[in-house]
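A reminder before we start the practical. When you read a complex entry, don't treat the lines as separate problems. The point of joint prediction is that each chain is placed relative to the others, so the output describes one connected object in space. Small molecules and nucleic acid strands, if listed, are placed in the same frame. In the example below there are two entries. Take a minute to note the order of the lines before looking further.
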Amino acid sequence: MGDDYALSDAEKERYSRQIRLFSEEGQERLKRMRVFIAGAGGLGSVISLYLAASGFGSIRIADCDSVELSNLNRQILHGSSDLGLSKAQSALETLSDINPEVEVEALKKRISLENIESLLQGCDMIMDAMDNFSARYLLNCAALQRKIPLFHGAISGFQGQATTIVPGRTACLRCIFPRAPPAQTSPALGSTCGVIGSIQVNEAIKFALGRGELLENRLLLWDGLSSTLEEISCERNRSCPDCCYF
Amino acid sequence: MRIQMPDGSIVELPIDDHRIQDILRELEINSEEVIVAKNGRIVVEEETAGGSDELKIVRIVHGG
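Here is the predicted structure of the whole assembly.
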């Protein structure tokens, strides 16, 4: 590891419980990671807070919306004093406070075909915290082109799903979900965001460390009403329009 | 064939080699809203199922 990523004494203290788990070398691996988080809503709140707290070195988060009162039942990145503020600005302030060691870039932007390349510039992984499949398909294609992992998560009410897409190794998002479901405003519960967002972060940590078994070719289904986790297997669709050329 | 519906309930259909999309239509389920696992593996709706196969129909969630 180069000196740029060597841990300071303050970082060694901050991350001491994690260093017990995966050593200073593991912590330096997290510090090297540059993550893009698509969305600063319910999932994006949990994901960004835990990525920042755990010491991922660089976080870029994008969201085009402003904080509204109806967000605050679940979007714990934002508080009542942030109402009316852009979610990007609110995210920047909260994440910088949670962990000033992390380089945070927060962008008030809607993710589109036109800007996705620049948004992902320099990033090693993508966290899916979007609320619609058209944006998710953009992330999927970008991940395939850049050969970087996409950590998918989605929620509705008590239900959630998560999987990890590693280009060249796993089914892509389009293989699993060939068509976007009809657009609608989902009911949203903070605890479901907590479960699914935490799983996504856990996957990102394992990927960064090169440890454990990722959710590759497995779609994890969370049912908060029965408190059960179930998984179903998936595989690459050789005629998938998104990944068949990769 | 045993089918687990999106709400967790179980339906038994005594059929052989039906296309998934036809089964969904028979069950009055919008195929755009679900994915289907056959014997634990996600399959495309052009695939057939029947006999002793087990289907699980999962409603796709998309909120964030």
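Discuss with your neighbour: The two ends of chain A are 31 Å apart (CA to CA). What might explain this?
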